[in-house]
Amino acid sequence: MRIVPAEEFDLKRESDYGTPEQNEAVKEIVRNVRREGDAALLRYTEQFDNTKLTASGLRVQHSELMAAYDEVEESFVTAIRSAAERIRSYHQKQKRSSWMDVQPDGSILGQIIRPLQRVGVYVPGGKAAYPSSVLMNVIPAQVAGVPEIVMVTPPATGGTEGINPYILVAAAEAGVTEIYRVGGAQAIAALAYGTASIAPVDKICGPGNIYVALAKREVYGAVNIDSIAGPSEIVVLADDSAEAAYAAADLLSQAEHDEMASAVLVTTSPALAKAVSAEVERQLELLPRRDIARASVDSYGAAIVARSMDEAISIVNKLAPEHLEIMTEDPMGILGRIENAGAIFLGPYSSEPVGDYFAGPNHIIPTNGTARFSSPVDLDDFIKKSSMIYYSKEALLRDGETIMELARREGLEGHARAIEIRLEQESQTGGNSK
Amino acid sequence: MRIVPAEEFDLKRESDYGTPEQNEAVKEIVRNVRREGDAALLRYTEQFDNTKLTASGLRVQHSELMAAYDEVEESFVTAIRSAAERIRSYHQKQKRSSWMDVQPDGSILGQIIRPLQRVGVYVPGGKAAYPSSVLMNVIPAQVAGVPEIVMVTPPATGGTEGINPYILVAAAEAGVTEIYRVGGAQAIAALAYGTASIAPVDKICGPGNIYVALAKREVYGAVNIDSIAGPSEIVVLADDSAEAAYAAADLLSQAEHDEMASAVLVTTSPALAKAVSAEVERQLELLPRRDIARASVDSYGAAIVARSMDEAISIVNKLAPEHLEIMTEDPMGILGRIENAGAIFLGPYSSEPVGDYFAGPNHIIPTNGTARFSSPVDLDDFIKKSSMIYYSKEALLRDGETIMELARREGLEGHARAIEIRLEQESQTGGNSK
């Protein structure tokens, strides 16, 4: 891994908005599903997933879900259950209540907080299945109280209708209420606009390939969508107290995700930079996914040597990484100075995979520097809020003139008159009495 | 206003994504401001706002702000101050704290909640100035603790550099920290990417014309943006206890905004539908903005007669209106059955303008049916959250195997090894001791 002085480092970031052809293809798929419903879904499933289904075969049956439990190891069920329990427990701490403010004049103001009614979660198909992502997308919705949580995932290619049993078990444990075997842009269109078989949702979450991402962009507005994730990132901020082998292993756990993943060490210690760099080389060669990790480390990895902890912290804040590990003598002393980071891991035992799978906080975290203004997925992503205004007669009589002054200043006489007509009528019918 | 039976009503909704030419123009402006900075800003300000500025003239001086107070009526300052105080007080009730969960094994999980660092607020120029929108955009940011709140607004056309003094006073009262006289897509580009004179922000809020809206879409990702508002909407849900004249006045206060605004009565009472419809006609003719209100009422207005309160409520939930007034005998009894509405006004004295200007809740509210999944502007729009994970050695030794099982199941051996290397090393250097 290359070692660079702080002043020479600039993080490469890439965004993928698709080619014009991909954009056009997605628009057409969405248009057709919107127009033709199930018929289009089935046609695209045959075309893209080599699977011939009937409309009644779209929905995964309860018996298939139960059968999935027989196909997976018991140790997996136990593991996913403990993870689900911890994730649920963390997200439960974010619960918020509707509130109201009862005022002395009899007015009541408030905010009503309610779960979304129906949420769709996309789960990619293909060889690699990520049950942990199912937990991280579904559990916050379920804890928020969303009554209908719909999962869509493509059928396994090659003519079988099957869905990865680990995904099915994770879905059942997380609290998914309906599952459909459909993927790609066509699944997103079905969730957004509905078909005879799939009722439309309020929000669509979950990762997918470029077609899925473009389709989410395309339907945004008709439904809400989560943010579209870029390649994964880790920054390890370390001083010379850090264990080089741990730092290297954690950097590699990020680099193995994706050739475009970024793993960066920021340190005040030139010796540590050297040691971590050497450890990265050593451990990298032993990884099954070494080709991916190598590409990531070579293109996006670096060990940055800062001249002071102040400079190191300011680099971290500029990078605004998705994951930040602080491996310094006193990590809590640095925490308060971190302005921008999606998830912050403190101390030698808080390895990033602890958070990816198990600790409780969500692993869906803003990438690409957007931690500057975005947040990890949490309950707030699955609620909606309504303001409530009950104004008393006393309050209206007191404030009416002021409201009319402001409305007239903006040239909105109709607004003023909506107040005026009440002031006039109420003074005719008994004046200031309540 | 036309009276329609429930089963025949369907709300027209329109979205404006601009023409291809407008989109291209905006892309070019953003590109040029990004590349040339202030030079492009000044050029576009001369071209679009007929105002020749120098870079040092972009920023509005403190003395100009003070002078604005001399240009407005004292009654306006008093009114805007009371409104600001109420809005501030309501938003303060939304304050949330960072929290942590200290676990028996010594681990600490938490969520750190912090304000955004720098926010940009767009304020449209033109003849109509809306000081109330300045309050509604700026106060939540200020209460959330955002230290830098930047306002941009175009200079008055016709060669003067002046800015509407009502806007300036509202900005000062709301807590804006910097003001620049620049508007249009060029202002949005400057806020997103920064120029020598204007430092970039984390989020851009505020309404604007189609060029501003397209520019916000264009820069989204580099910065966050608020949602893009559609035409304003009101639904009045009423039974025969409602005062027809009040309902009509409130419907018209919405209709006068915009020819595309929508004002709809939903009632169980055919007699009230008739009375409100007649009152709308009568009051409409007296309004200064009667042409706009007429166009809105004719195209988007209706009095819908439902066969039961259940049906009426279900229509409201389907419409998911920006503003909902409930004028029934027992409005609180209906509140809990309203699933989708941005702001809910209860009883005869809670006229919508009370909320537009004064009561406290925000008047920036989801339009176009998006109350199904979006919320009025509040403090949540101006914060970012970071997850915090401090895992103890004890916890890692306990959970390490489970985490490795989950990582290996997903084929991410590098993740497993980041845990394994710690388990091995810690057992060599003293096993289970903390």
Automatic annotation (TrEMBL), chains A, B:
<feature type="binding site">
    <location>
        <position position="122"/>
    </location>
    <ligand>
        <name>NAD(+)</name>
    </ligand>
</feature>
<dbReference type="InterPro" id="IPR001692">
    <property type="entry name" value="Histidinol_DH_CS"/>
</dbReference>
<comment type="function">
    <text>Catalyzes the sequential NAD-dependent oxidations of L-histidinol to L-histidinaldehyde and then to L-histidine.</text>
</comment>
<comment type="similarity">
    <text>Belongs to the histidinol dehydrogenase family.</text>
</comment>
<keyword id="KW-0560">Oxidoreductase</keyword>
<dbReference type="GO" id="GO:0051287">
    <property type="term" value="F:NAD binding"/>
</dbReference>
<feature type="binding site">
    <location>
        <position position="186"/>
    </location>
    <ligand>
        <name>NAD(+)</name>
    </ligand>
</feature>
<keyword id="KW-0520">NAD</keyword>
<dbReference type="InterPro" id="IPR012131">
    <property type="entry name" value="Hstdl_DH"/>
</dbReference>
<feature type="binding site">
    <location>
        <position position="323"/>
    </location>
    <ligand>
        <name>substrate</name>
    </ligand>
</feature>
<dbReference type="GO" id="GO:0005829">
    <property type="term" value="C:cytosol"/>
</dbReference>
<feature type="binding site">
    <location>
        <position position="232"/>
    </location>
    <ligand>
        <name>substrate</name>
    </ligand>
</feature>
<keyword id="KW-0479">Metal-binding</keyword>
<dbReference type="GO" id="GO:0008270">
    <property type="term" value="F:zinc ion binding"/>
</dbReference>
<feature type="binding site">
    <location>
        <position position="257"/>
    </location>
    <ligand>
        <name>substrate</name>
    </ligand>
</feature>
<feature type="binding site">
    <location>
        <position position="254"/>
    </location>
    <ligand>
        <name>Zn(2+)</name>
    </ligand>
</feature>
<dbReference type="GO" id="GO:0004399">
    <property type="term" value="F:histidinol dehydrogenase activity"/>
</dbReference>
<comment type="pathway">
    <text>Amino-acid biosynthesis; L-histidine biosynthesis; L-histidine from 5-phospho-alpha-D-ribose 1-diphosphate: step 9/9.</text>
</comment>
<feature type="binding site">
    <location>
        <position position="257"/>
    </location>
    <ligand>
        <name>Zn(2+)</name>
    </ligand>
</feature>
<feature type="active site" description="Proton acceptor">
    <location>
        <position position="323"/>
    </location>
</feature>
<dbReference type="InterPro" id="IPR016161">
    <property type="entry name" value="Ald_DH/histidinol_DH"/>
</dbReference>
<feature type="binding site">
    <location>
        <position position="356"/>
    </location>
    <ligand>
        <name>substrate</name>
    </ligand>
</feature>
<feature type="binding site">
    <location>
        <position position="254"/>
    </location>
    <ligand>
        <name>substrate</name>
    </ligand>
</feature>
<feature type="binding site">
    <location>
        <position position="410"/>
    </location>
    <ligand>
        <name>substrate</name>
    </ligand>
</feature>
<dbReference type="GO" id="GO:0000105">
    <property type="term" value="P:L-histidine biosynthetic process"/>
</dbReference>
<keyword id="KW-0368">Histidine biosynthesis</keyword>
<feature type="binding site">
    <location>
        <position position="356"/>
    </location>
    <ligand>
        <name>Zn(2+)</name>
    </ligand>
</feature>
<dbReference type="InterPro" id="IPR022695">
    <property type="entry name" value="Histidinol_DH_monofunct"/>
</dbReference>
<protein>
    <recommendedName>
        <fullName>Histidinol dehydrogenase</fullName>
        <ecNumber>1.1.1.23</ecNumber>
    </recommendedName>
</protein>
<feature type="binding site">
    <location>
        <position position="415"/>
    </location>
    <ligand>
        <name>substrate</name>
    </ligand>
</feature>
<feature type="active site" description="Proton acceptor">
    <location>
        <position position="322"/>
    </location>
</feature>
<keyword id="KW-0862">Zinc</keyword>
<keyword id="KW-0028">Amino-acid biosynthesis</keyword>
<feature type="binding site">
    <location>
        <position position="209"/>
    </location>
    <ligand>
        <name>NAD(+)</name>
    </ligand>
</feature>
<feature type="binding site">
    <location>
        <position position="415"/>
    </location>
    <ligand>
        <name>Zn(2+)</name>
    </ligand>
</feature>
<dbReference type="Pfam" id="PF00815">
    <property type="entry name" value="Histidinol_dh"/>
</dbReference>
